[in-house]
Each structure stands twice: as structure tokens, then as C-alpha cells.
Amino acid sequence: MTASDQPRPHSPGDAFVPEYRLPDWYLDHATPPADPAPVAWHSVDNPAIDFAARCRMCAAAEVAPVTIRAHLGLLVWMRGQALDGPWCRKCGTSLIRKYSTRTLCLGWWSPLSLLIAAPAVLVANARAYLQIRRLPPPVPLPGHPQPDPGKPILLRPRAYVALIPVATLLWLLTAALGSLT
Questions:
Q1: With b meaning 16 or more CB within 10 Å and e meaning fewer, what string describes 62-90?
Q2: Which residue, 76, 80, 81, 82, is CA-closest to 112?
Q3: In angstroms, rounded to a whole number, what is the distance separating the alpha carbons of residues 86 and 95?
Q4: Distances from the Cα of 133 to the Cαs of 7, 8, 28, 101, 130, in angstroms?
Q5: 3 state DSSP class of 25
Q6: Helix ranges, 69-162 (H)
Q7: 0.85 exceeded by pTM
Q8: How many CB atoms lie within 10 A of CB 124?
Q9: Within 10 Å of residue 118's Cβ, how many Cβ atoms?
Q10: Tens digit of pLDDT for each residue in 110-151?
């Protein structure tokens, strides 16, 4: 048997039709759709959804426009991070816990960070958390997963690294005050 003798899957003489054609009785009685190309409500191409006013991670509608910050105090210089957005309750809580824990662990290792920058970032994140906490539970769009908020900040071991520079500062202050008397 040669290649030309083998049957082709979609030859014109086949009974198989590769496309579905609506029956004539249906076409005679069907009303045409008002919109020939409707878009699903959760589609990315749907112009009715304004993604600028939705959560940046899960596209939930109930959001707060807050900035979440982190601060890294290195021995000589400092580095800050900020995530602007509208955030829903679950995504915002997750990011605030992550960035505040990072600040508590790595934000105290320069003198200016210890006194000014790290406490300012933690206060800013606390304000952002108060705004996010007031939001209702989010309903994300299909296909947009939400992160797990994880443990609260005080249950994360990395948060207690901040006690090292704070205890050192208190020890230096008491030693300096003790030498004056």
C-alpha cells in the first residue's frame, strides 16, 4: 500500500465534517444574539473591568490604596523598598507581614536606621494595616490566586532579630549613663 492509497482524514468525500454546522430548523427559528462577540465577565479583555482600581495581585474589587514599605539598614548605607498599589485585605496583609518582618530583621543595622528609618517604616506599615483591616473579605477574579498571609509578625522568628540592636543600644545607654554618675 502506497501513501497515495491511504485514506486522508478530511477528504471531500468523507462523511466527517470538521466544523459543526447548526441545523436548518434551528437557524430558521433562532433569534440572533444582540452582541455577536460577548466577552466573559472575568476575561482579561473585558473593557468593563477597570484593573487600575482592583488589587494588584488578585484583582479583587474591595481595595485600599496604600503603600507597603520595607527598610534595610546596612552598616554604611540604607535601602528602602515600597510597593504602591491598591491592595485587597488578604494580599495587603500578606505583604505587610512579609515586609515588616524583613524590616524587623534587616532594618536596624545602621545608626540612622536604628533611630529614624526603621521605626518610621514600621509605623507607616501599621497605618497601612489599619486601612486594610477595615476591608471586607476579598473575592478574587478567577485565575488570579491570592497569597497565604502566613503567621502574624510576632509569631515569626525573624522578627525577634530586632531585639539584638535594641538591646545593644539600651546597654550602651545604660553604660554611658552609669559612667556619668
A1: ebbebebbbbbbeeeebeeeeeebbbbbb
A2: 76
A3: 12
A4: 67, 64, 57, 18, 5
A5: helix
A6: 89-106, 111-112, 118-133
A7: no
A8: 18
A9: 25
A10: 888 888 999 999 999 999 999 999 999 998 888 888 999 999
